[in-house]
């Protein structure tokens, strides 16, 4: 595919500086771009490459001040990063329209399943009884869509994903390879003889629209009711979401985080990697949790920032860290003060001691 600077500028509402007829055929990082490439600069650390880049077109921020003229054609926009992301999104849409459709001869689709228009179902995939695959959905090879499960319009399920019975996937969802949705929640009742009796997990998982789920993430079905992943949520790779959890709209969670059962996470939260969250608590909207933190109690106030294990207020943690770094110096100062106090006490004692008569 080939695009001109004029076409790109019209799409992202940018202003061209240079050759409006300059063309690109691919995208590349600014430091690696060759002729025919489209790139962008949003981070000031990469501005130095503007003078040496061989890219044909570069998207930059309106506020960027050039020290000297550059060879590539520039397209100025308010936010270069967001504009470049928009272009990549459009590129993926074009690829999707040009992509595969139809049901591979080596896939199995139950006669009772409902399959929409312009659907792709790859080899060795299994679509169960009364399952639904809506218009424009793409099911890559080796996937399992269980009985009465559904995949919404224009959603993409990459290779090896397993969606258990009755689970619901919304529209425009992306699920990356190896993810498991709807496996049993971790529910076992201890018995008097020291064994554990399995509690049947009869609920499901509901993933709403515009969610993206990374590779090898697991989301457990509810014991009863549903585990909810609300609209716009973004989950990284290798995340564990337990039964009956609810993750609020537009919350993002980084890799290797684990959320225990029945915890409710609010809207627009940001949770770093390797965070551990206990079960049966609530986390308020717009909460931020730093990487490798451990959260053991509810967060009741919105816009709270937490760090540490157990997690506590982020600003207080920074102050504590500053004190900790200065502990050797503080210890030395304390020792000097103790020595001075001891010397002053000795002097005062000498002054207050009555003179002996001869």
Jot down its keywords.
358 residues; 2 domains; Udp-n-acetylmuramoylalanyl-d-glutamate--2,6- Diaminopimelate Ligase, Chain: A, domain 1; 10-stranded parallel sheet; single chain; alpha/beta; UDP N-Acetylglucosamine Acyltransferase, domain 1; 28% strand; 12-stranded mixed sheet
Give a brief description.
The chain contains four helices and 40 strands. With 358 residues, the chain is an alpha/beta fold. The mean pLDDT is 93.
Protein described:
The protein is of the alpha/beta class. The chain has two domains: 3-98, Udp-n-acetylmuramoylalanyl-d-glutamate--2,6- Diaminopimelate Ligase, Chain: A, domain 1 (3-Layer(aba) Sandwich), CATH 3.40.1390; 102-315, UDP N-Acetylglucosamine Acyltransferase, domain 1 (3 Solenoid), CATH 2.160.10. It is 18% helix and 28% strand. The protein has four helices and 40 strands. The strands form six sheets. A twelve-stranded mixed beta sheet has the order 8-11-14-17-20-25-28-31-34-37-39-40. The chain has a ten-stranded parallel beta sheet with strand order 9-12-15-18-21-26-29-32-35-38, with no helix packed on it. A nine-stranded parallel beta sheet has the order 10-13-16-19-24-27-30-33-36, with no helix packed on it. A hairpin with a 5-residue loop joins strand 22 (188-190) and strand 23. It is flat, with a radius of gyration of 30 Å.
- Structural class, by secondary structure, is alpha/beta
CATH topology label of the largest domain: UDP N-Acetylglucosamine Acyltransferase, domain 1
Helix content: 10-25%
The biggest beta sheet, please? 12 strands, mixed
Spans of at least 5 consecutive residues with low confidence: none
Shape type: flat
Distance between the termini: 112 Å
Rg calc = 30 Å
CATH C-level label of the largest domain = Mainly Beta
Report strand %: 25-35%
């Amino acid at each position: 595919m080939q695009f001109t600077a004029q076409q790109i500028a019209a799409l992202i509402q940018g202003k061209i500086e240079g050759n409006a007829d300059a063309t690109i055929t691919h995208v590349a990082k600014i430091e690696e771009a060759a002729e025919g490439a489209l790139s962008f600069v949003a981070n000031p650390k990469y501005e130095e490459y503007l003078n040496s880049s061989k890219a044909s077109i570069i998207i930059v921020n309106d506020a960027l001040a050039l020290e000297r003229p550059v060879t590539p054609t520039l397209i100025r926009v308010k936010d270069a990063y967001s504009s470049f992301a928009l272009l990549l999104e459009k590129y993926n849409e074009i690829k999707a329209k040009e992509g595969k459709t139809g049901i591979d001869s080596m896939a199995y689709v139950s006669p009772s399943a409902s399959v929409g228009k312009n659907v792709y179902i790859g080899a060795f995939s299994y679509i169960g009884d009364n399952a639904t695959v809506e218009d424009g959905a793409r099911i890559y090879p080796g996937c399992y869509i269980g009985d009465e499960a559904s995949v919404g319009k224009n959603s993409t399920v990459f290779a090896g994903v397993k969606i258990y019975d009755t689970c619901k996937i919304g529209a425009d969802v992306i699920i990356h390879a190896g993810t498991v949705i709807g496996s049993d929640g971790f529910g076992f009742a201890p018995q008097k003889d020291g064994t554990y009796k399995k509690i049947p997990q009869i609920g499901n998982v509901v993933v709403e629209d515009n969610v993206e789920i990374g590779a090898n993430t697991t989301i457990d079905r509810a014991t009863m009711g549903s585990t909810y992943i609300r609209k716009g949520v973004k989950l990284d790779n290798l995340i564990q979401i337990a039964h009956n959890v609810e993750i609020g709209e537009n919350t993002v969670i980084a890799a290797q985080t684990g959320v225990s059962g029945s915890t409710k996470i609010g809207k627009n939260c940001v949770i770093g990697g390797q965070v551990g969250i206990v079960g049966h608590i609530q986390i308020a909207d717009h909460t931020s949790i730093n990487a490798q933190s451990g959260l053991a109690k509810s967060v009741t106030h919105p816009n709270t920032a937490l760090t540490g294990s157990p997690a506590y207020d982020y600003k207080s943690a920074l102050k504590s860290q500053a004190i900790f770094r200065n502990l050797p110096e503080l210890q030395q100062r304390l020792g000097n003060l103790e020595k001075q106090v001891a010397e002053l006490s000795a002097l005062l004692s000498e002054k207050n001691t009555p003179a002996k008569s001869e």
